[in-house]
Specification:
Alpha-Beta Plaits, four-stranded antiparallel sheet, alpha+beta, 16% strand
């Protein structure tokens, strides 16, 4: 059966979730997180997608985007996926899929849920008992959105 096309209107926030296959680890070392974020920055600029919030967990990612062009998110996620899986498989001498199928996406009602979703994402490491304070987890946008840290990856969130 053919895949249904994604609904991805320009200018509408989207929450993306991508899990490791069988919920296995996708980020083993600090270098893995750095590599993924580097490609996220590169391809979000190339495909004109604003990054507003993100958290990289050991076995999944949450991303909050606003596409500025049609198909921007799909093209960006495909490019990141190709680069990161190739890197991960080479680095850890493995083959095959890393991600559990296609990434999940849903549209976000900016007026009602944008801030709530951002908080949910950025507090994920606290709920997972990885850290006690979200500011101490460096693989999320918490320091940018909550503490005002300057970032060339994350666009400033404008809450409706």
């Amino acid at each position: 059966m053919a895949r249904l096309p994604r609904v991805a209107p320009v200018g509408v926030p989207q929450h993306i979730i991508q899990r490791g296959n069988n919920r296995h680890t996708c980020f083993v070392s600090e270098e893995d997180f750095i590599a993924y974020l580097g490609w996220l920055k590169e391809y979000s600029q190339k495909y004109e997608v604003e990054v507003h919030a993100w958290v990289l967990m050991s076995n999944h990612v949450h991303l909050l985007f606003i596409p500025k062009v049609e198909n921007g998110i799909s093209q960006m996620m495909q490019a990141i996926g190709r680069q990161y899986v190739r890197y991960f498989n080479f680095t850890y001498k493995r083959t095959g899929t890393l991600w559990e199928g296609r990434y999940k996406s849903c549209l976000v009602d900016a007026e009602r849920h944008l801030l709530e979703l951002s908080r949910y994402m950025e507090l994920n490491p606290v709920r997972a008992n990885m850290v006690g304070d979200p500011a101490s987890y460096v693989w999320s946008s918490y320091q940018i959105n909550a503490l005002g840290k300057v970032s060339s990856l994350c666009s400033r969130m404008i809450y409706m």
